[in-house]
Each structure stands twice: as C-alpha cells, then as structure tokens.
Predict the 3D structure of the following.
Amino acid sequence: MTAGSGVIPPRIEAVDEKPVSARKLKAQLRAQDAKTKLSSPWASGVAIILAILWSIPTLGLFITSFRPVEDLRDTGWWNWFTNFHVTLDNYEGALSTTNGGLGGFFLNTFVITIPAVIIPISLALLAAYAFAWIPFKGRNILFVAVFALQIVPIQVTLIPLQTIFVSLDLQNSFWPVWISHTIFGLPLAIFLLHNFMTEIPRSIIEAARVDGAGHVKIFFVVLMPLLIPAIAAFAIFQFLWVWNDLLVALVFAPSPNLKPLTAAVAELSGTKGTQWELLSSGAFISIIVPLIVFLSLQRYFVRGLLAGGVKG
Amino acid sequence: MDWFMSPTSAGEKLLVMVVAILIFVAIVGIILWAIDRPKIPNWVVVVGFLGPVTIALAGGLLYPAVGTVIRSFQKIQNVIGPDGKRILVNGKVTTEKVFGFDNYSRIFTEDGFQRVLLNTVAWVILVPLLATSFGLIYAVLVDRTRFEKAAKALVFLPMAISMVGASIIWKFVYDYRQAGTTQTGLANQLLVWLGLEPVQFLQADPWNTLFLIIVMVWIQAGFAMTVLSAAIKAVPDDIIEAAQLDGATGLKLFMRVTVPSIRPSVVVVLTTIAMGSLKAFDVVRTMTGGNFNTSVVANEFYTQTFRQGDAGQGIGAALAVILFIIIIPVIMYNVRQMRLSEEMR
C-alpha cells in the first residue's frame, strides 16, 4: 500500500492537496531509499513470519473443520498435511437439526443484521445533515452531547431497556434487538457521517441553495453521491458489530426462534466443549460472511476506522 | 398479525425484516416530505431531522443509564419486624427496597468480586499495552516492504472474526489432553515437543487470565497496526530527512522522531482498545464462562443480572456503573489529547 492510496483519512488528504506528481515522486524516492537500507529485507522477513504466526490459530481450526472425526480425535491438525483426508461431514453435522441446526440461527443472524444496519444509517443521515448544514441555537451543545453518548457502556442500559421492551410486550420478537442495535449504533453513525459531511465544501451546498434547491433536494442530489464512501464505511462497521455481537443477542434474543449464530455457537462451546468437529465447523459457519464482507470491502472499513470513529 | 410479533417460519422472518426496514424508510420519507415545502420555519426542519434520533438516544441511552445508576444503590431485603424476625404475610416473606452503598461495598470487599476487579484491571492495562506495542512494531516492520498489503491483511483479519469465533479458535490452540497421550492443541503439542508436561491453560489460575488476554491481544493488534501504520505514513518526509541528516538512524530515529510524531494516534489506539476490553465479555464467557477465577466486570455483570435473577439486579447495576466510572477518565484523557493535537495542527 503506497502512501495516500485511500488509507489516509480525508482530513489529511485535504491538507495535502498539493500536486500529486510531487507526492508520487517522493514516494518513489522513499521506496528506493528503503530498498537500499540494510534492515529492509530483514524487516520484511520478520513481518511475513509474524503474519503467518498470526494466522496459524485460525488455519488450525479451519483445517480441523474439514477433517474426519476419527482423525481429529486422535491426532493434531498438523498431521493433516501428511495424512490428507477431507470431509464435509462436520459441516453437515453442524447444520443438521439434530445438533441444534445452525442453519436456522444463520437465518436469524441475517434477519437481525440487515435492518440493524439500514435503520441507524437512515436516521443518522437525517441528524448528521441537520448538525452539519442547518444552523440553529444549541447545535454545538447537542452535537457534543450525542458524541459523548458514545461512551455509555451498553451494559448500563440493558436492564431498563429490557423493562421497557417487556412493558411494550415486544420481548418475543426481533424488535428489541433491532431497536437496541440501532440505538447503540447511532452516536458513532452520526459522528462519522457528520465528519464526512463537513468535509464537503460549503460552496457546493450554497450554489445548490441559490439554484432554489430545498433541504431534500440538497440531501439526495448533492450530498448523497458524495457520502457513499462514508455510508459504506459505517455500514461495514455496523454490519461486523451486529453480526459478531453476543451481549445484545443473549439479553434480547434468548429464545431459539430469535437467537443468532454467535449465541448458538457460544452455547455449543459450553455444552459440546470437546466435540471439535461440530465446534470448528460451527465457528467457520459464523465467521464466513463477515470475513467475505471484510475482505471485499476492507478499503472502506479502514477509511472509516481512520476517520475518527472507532467502536470498542 | 402473529407473524409480525413472533415470526416462526423462515418466510415470516424475512417478511417482518422487510416490513421493519420499510417502516423506517417510510418514517424518513414522511419527515422529508413534510419538511420539503417553501417557507417552513427553521425549527420545524430541525425537529424533523433531529427528532427521531433525539427520542432514540434519550429513551434508549440516557434514560436507561440514569435508571441503572439509581438501581445500583438499591437493594431488596426482607422486612424485619420489631421482634427482629421477618414479617410473613400469607406465609410469604415481605420485602422492601432500601437505598445505600451496600452493592458497592459488597463488590469492593467480597473476595470473589475483588478477584473480578483485579482481573479487569489486568485486562484494561495489558491488552492495550501488548496490542499497541505489537501493532506499532509490526507497522514499522511492514512499512514499505513488498508484501505489505497481504501481511497487513493477515494480521488485521481477526478484527472481522467474532470474539466468539476467536475464542473457539484459541480454545482449540489451548486444548489439553493428559500427558502421554497425543495432543491435539497446538500450544500443548509445542510444550511436549520441547520435552515439557502439557498444561491445562484455561484452568491454571492465575495464569489462565493471561492466556485469555492473549486472545484479546490477537484480536485487537490488527486494529492498532492499521491506525498506527497510517499515522507513520503521514509523518512528513522532511522531518525524517532532517533527522537523518542529523545522524539519527534506526532505533534512535524511531524513538526520537517517529514515536513523538505519532503520539496522538498512539493515545487514541491505547484508549480505544482499553475501552473495548473493559466492556467485552465474549472471550471470557466463551472460553471459561468466568470459571477458574477468570471473570471480569463485564462478564460478572451479565452473570449477576441475567443468570442470578432478580436478587442480583442491584449488584448487576452497580457493576455496570463501575464499568462506566472506569471509562470516564480514560475518555477524558483521550479528548484532552485530541484537543492538544488539534491545537498543534
């Protein structure tokens, strides 16, 4: 990755808007400089070894998930390279209904995640627009208040929220999960989208206003196309966060009818702690979708990460 | 309308999902439609745009947080009569709510809770320090090498894996079989290859907490590496060149020039990871369930509130408030640093 290839936040790019060719030239010089350094090949060797070491735990479980039960009970996964057997039985076992049927939980995760990504984005876009482009009294104070709400730990809200959901008779539906994920995602969403919105030059908005465009037209025609990268960045954040969440799911979706994959796999780890054939395949069924999203959209994810919004 | 509240089949679930999305799209549409007319007063526009978010945050974050703080001071106990005995009404013990610091004093004095607090301190200090140091070293090592992109992706990858998934991956690494039998966990196999006895990593108190912390470091290091790598690349070349002209090389250049220039980023990374590890409980819950003295505040909160039933509610609330109190100074430090770096800009 060379400097400035989208990993640097827009704020820095805006500062650095000098001729691009000069930057590139500098980067090339730096690269040449690095090549001549003695430490460089040594450093890249160490870096590659560390990257491989970092991946070995995942690789071990991944290989295990394809090994026949007898093999994986008797020998370590590293024997797979010399004793090469591959089977899909473990995946069938994890997905079949006799073992809890992760297929149903997969559907639950999907049903939970999609609205929990779309709803906060649509609400946050409205709020971020107001904070960025509509002047009103107390705007800064309100924006700081929203920003500050990012620090409220979810744990602090769970018990009263549950009381509210029970009194509204919502507890056996997906609504508590959707609503809570929306609420927990909003401060970060507003903050991120607001940051990106204020990067857009004021003159563009004002030109549109002079042309007679109202808030709605400005919102959709002028801002939306420019905001796509920001929306994508937050969408990936929220997607990974909701898909991988355990706490909200345990509290608000405890019944098998609503439970997502993470909770089901965590439970499997407690009850079938030694059945590695089920655990390993189950873990990879839960990992595969976020992994695809992450690998294909990594660029946007990193961009969002560096734009200041980071969720614990 | 049964499917709307409690969908059971796959079709019903997908239908209610679509309906939920449509409801919110409709809300946004109605707001925009109502606002988009000439000569509408500014405050109506503001209320329209900020109303839904304000309601959601006030009702879903602020109000519950206040409620939990109040609940944390509350304890349900049996009513004691003048004769010093419990009062029975229709054969049932009557209870009353009392307010005080009981929950907090229990947490800070009982042995079990003290251990939980101690473990949490270990998590909040060790995870950010280890993950950030690794991330920083790695970012420097990988900077401008040929395989930078791929090597970074491999280290960053655990960020995408759920903590539950990561826990299972590492549970397998730590898997224990009796000495003399073939090991299937990599960590124990390595010990055996070195001629040592296999270890029950997840049960060996107090080291088991450290082995759980390693899992969290494994997850978080990629995040630290990504942010710090971008910060290092943003250090102006002329500063580096000037230092090189002054004769600074290698480690000296790194410690005297690079690290001070990226200090604000290091602070942000440290505090973000600290907050993350403070609130997270997935690793502990999936790997040990908090047994063998490995519990942390976030896990104990869940256990007390949702496993022990009503009796634990006050304690659970107090634990949540303690989480919150620990987070506040961390954030304040972070905000101060951010301000300082913005002033310097």
Summary: Chain B touches chain A through 126 residues (CB under 8 Å).
